[in-house]
Automatic annotation (TrEMBL):
This is phosphoglucomutase (alpha-D-glucose-1,6-bisphosphate-dependent). The keyword Magnesium applies. Residues 1-21 are annotated as: Disordered. InterPro entries: A-D-PHexomutase_a/b/a-I (IPR005844), A-D-PHexomutase_a/b/a-I/II/III (IPR016055), A-D-PHexomutase_a/b/a-II (IPR005845), A-D-PHexomutase_a/b/a-III (IPR005846), A-D-PHexomutase_C_sf (IPR036900), A-D-PHexomutase_CS (IPR016066), Alpha-D-phosphohexomutase_SF (IPR005841), PGM (IPR045244). SUPFAM superfamilies: Phosphoglucomutase, C-terminal domain, Phosphoglucomutase, first 3 domains. Its EC number is 5.4.2.2. It comes from Novosphingobium clariflavum. Pfam families: PGM1_C_vert_fung, PGM_PMM_I, PGM_PMM_II, PGM_PMM_III. Its cofactor is Mg(2+). It catalyses: alpha-D-glucose 1-phosphate = alpha-D-glucose 6-phosphate.
Length: 544
């Protein structure tokens, strides 16, 4: 009988899971008992049934292997019967969701800080996904946080490290540890969703692409699917080996951190499609030759064409988007006669809608798009759906975008990120905005007149739970808007996100410069919130 070791501990402050779990600097996680306290709090809250299966995997960033080994021993001590762990500790976030669902696991620990930088001086994170494969809902994360504030012990067993690099089985105490191929199950799933034969014909016809895996987790998946199964030329996937520090990249697929890809796609030697994914593989960037597609537009364009893919024919039940995401998807839903749900930021809010069959596709402006095939956003899935659509329709990315806008109109959209803002300053800005909400309607900012202003709250249509204080909205009489929100994905200071949107009808200016089209909204955002006054920042750090 394996001896369970009880290790006394005391609470660590600041272990409240954010939008996507607990994220801190590596040095914080390296404190004695820090990761262990959080993992034990998860196990204490979810209380696994004896013999349950747990999935563990991550994006390969620094400290992943250390935490995985400890999590395996702790799982054995807490009564799990089996752990499935990706070879090398690797599982992309969407792949982890699929593995949880396919093998009937009770849940999973996903070790990632997503699009945040990796390395000894950078970021690390842990989140718990429930049995449906999706992030734990707020009721569970709140309970986990509460437990972290009073935890006094964590459980483990005495056992050697598992060889994470060899596929096969090992025993840790009385528990089976199965090291699995991290790619195979996911790649097989993609073949059931999309018309790979049609895409192969497109590739054979000379269609070219560049996929930047950003030295992160998607590399092995992209090599297998794009180059081996679909026939793209070797070298199509760049930065395809996951590295603990992402090769010094900031693995966020936006126009700042994927500038090399953007420059290629805007140049004379551009392939037909450029794409990228982030640290843990759940985000995507889509750029056609000479045409950047905003994530909000990508969601709308994919939704309008999703029934082209074999697995989605005749079954677009609805669309969901996060509140800060543009209303482009709403216009598609209206045209197709299906509902469009507006949720708070965070994929966990889509889980109930997906489980209930209310939506088929959902997405966020932060480059996350996904469907009911898993319960996470899925970067490579979005790229494959784009490929399937382009293959069947026989048009370029640019032509697809123009035809979409000609039918639905265009939502000009941008997000301005002010990163590493002093938290007190950011909180003061938001508090001032909230206090001003009652007086904002009727206020004139240049050519814009405020029609409505509020703090967004969401009532889940499935379980009727309420999530309040999800961002400040300022809506103008011309239909444009500005949204202010503090991000929950950073690890240092606060990130102020300002979302700007303006709609142009099909008869309007559909191919103008986004910055020019949003000048009035940018000025209104500054006037309403006093960004420079509160933060000292005269310009955003990132514009997407």
């Amino acid at each position: 009988m394996t001896r369970i070791v009880t290790v006394p501990t005391t609470p660590h402050e600041g272990q409240a899971p954010g939008t996507s779990g607990l994220r801190k600097k590596v040095r914080v996680f390296q404190q004695p008992g820090y990761a262990e306290n959080f993992i034990q709090s998860v196990f204490d809250v979810v209380t696994p049934t004896p013999g349950a299966t747990l999935v563990i995997g991550g994006d390969g960033r620094f400290h992943n292997r250390t935490v995985i080994q400890q999590a395996i021993r702790m799982a054995a001590a807490n009564g799990y019967g089996r752990v499935l762990v990706g070879q090398g500790g690797i599982l992309s976030t969407p792949a982890a969701s699929h593995v949880i669902r396919k093998y009937g696991a009770s849940g999973g620990l996903v070790l990632s800080a997503s699009h945040n930088p990796g390395g000894p001086d950078e970021d690390f994170g842990i989140k718990y996904n429930i049995a449906n494969g999706g992030p734990a809902p707020e009721s569970v994360t709140a309970a986990i946080h509460a437990r972290t504030t009073g935890i006094d012990r964590w459980l483990t067993v005495e056992a050697a490290d598992v060889d994470l690099d060899r596929v096969g089985e090992a025993m840790v105490g009385e528990m089976t540890v199965q090291v699995i191929d991290p790619v195979a199950d996911y790649a097989d799933l993609m073949e059931t969703l999309f018309d790979f034969d049609h895409i192969r014909k497109l590739v054979a016809s000379g269609f070219t692409m560049r996929f930047d895996a950003m030295s992160a987790v998607t590399g092995p998946y992209a090599h297998e699917i794009l180059e081996r199964r679909l026939g793209f030329a070797p070298g199509t996937v760049v930065n395809g080996t996951p590295l603990e520090d992402f090769g010094g990249h900031h693995p966020d697929p936006n126009l700042i951190y994927a500038k090399e890809l953007y420059d290629l796609m805007m140049g004379p030697q551009a392939p037909d499609l450029g794409a990228a994914s982030d640290g843990d593989g759940d985000r995507n960037l889509i750029i056609g030759r000479g045409r950047f597609i905003t994530p909000s537009d990508s969601l709308a364009m994919l939704a309008a064409n999703i029934e082209i893919a074999p697995a989605y024919r005749g079954r677009l039940a609805g669309i969901a988007r996060s509140m800060p995401t543009s209303g482009a998807a709403d216009r598609v839903a209206e045209a197709f006669g299906v509902p469009c749900y507006e949720t708070p930021t965070g994929w966990k809010f889509f889980g109930n809608l997906l489980d209930a069959g209310k939506v088929t596709i959902c997405g966020e402006e932060s480059a996350g798009t996904g469907s009911d095939h898993v319960r996470e956003k899925d970067g490579l899935w979005a790229v494959l759906l784009w490929l399937n659509i382009l293959a069947v329709r026989g048009i370029s990315v640019d032509d697809l975008a123009k035809s979409h806008w000609a039918r639905f109109g265009r939502n000009y959209y941008a997000r301005h990120d002010y990163e590493g803002v002093d938290k007190a300053d950011a909180d003061a800005l938001m508090a001032e905005l909230l206090a001003a909400l009652p007086s904002l309607p009727g206020t004139v900012f240049g050519p814009l007149v405020v029609a409505h202003a509020d703090s967004f709250a969401y009532t889940d249509p499935v379980d009727h739970s309420v999530s309040a204080n999800q961002g400040v909205r300022v809506l103008f009489e011309d239909g444009s808007r500005v949204v202010f929100r503090l991000s929950g994905t950073g690890t240092q200071g606060a990130t102020l996100r300002v979302y700007l949107e303006r709609y142009e009808a099909p008869s309007g200016h559909l191919d103008a410069d986004t910055g020019v089209m949003l000048e009035a909204q940018v000025a209104a955002a500054e006037a309403a919130a006093g960004i420079v006054r509160h933060t000292g920042r005269i310009a955003p750090d990132v514009v997407t």
